[in-house]
Fold this protein.
Amino acid sequence: MFEREKRQVLDTALEIKRCGLVSLSGGNVSLRVGEGQYLVTPSGMIYEEMVPDDVCLIDDDCRVIEGERKPSSDASALVYMFQHLPVNAIIHTHQPWATACGFLTDELPDFLVTIMDACKNPVKVAPFTPSSAIGMGELAVEYTDDSLAVILKHHGVVTYGKDLEEALFAAVYLEESAKTFAIAKAMGAEIPALDPELIAKEKAGWETYGQ
Ligand SMILES: [Zn+2]
């Protein structure tokens, strides 16, 4: 079942690896495919060595419906996020620039067009909680605040989307924005707050971006 969707999950996982957002088998990619049904990348597998059938189909209780592999150790947290947010795709990474910014600020503001467009709202930093536990999901939901991304302090990032592409754009552009933020701060720059009307205009333009 869901052969095309499994391929999309794997392609997204390979893309976050190519973009330097994870190393080895770090992070995970998941996709809602039906009522209480989710595709999740397997636990501890190197992405380049995966085939689509390694992607696990799990239910609301994290039971494997289809697949021979053990799902991501964050599966319970991911299912919690799917159950509490109106999203269809979740990407979890250990991207270094955004994670580093979690020590610089409690919120990455709407300061660049990329973060406005791809993350929709400022990105909050959630406090530390251990990985591979439902608490990670609870904090990721609590700190979302209508943004498509949350920084998990001492850990990494979670991004959301109506589909995998939207979650991918949020993760990649957040990383680029975080790098710019860190460089500007290191240079001693002040980053001024922008006019909310102009931010809204920028976001409206993004809706018609692309083909
Ligand atoms: Zn992690």
Remarks:
- The chain has one domain: 3-206.
- The mean pLDDT is 96.
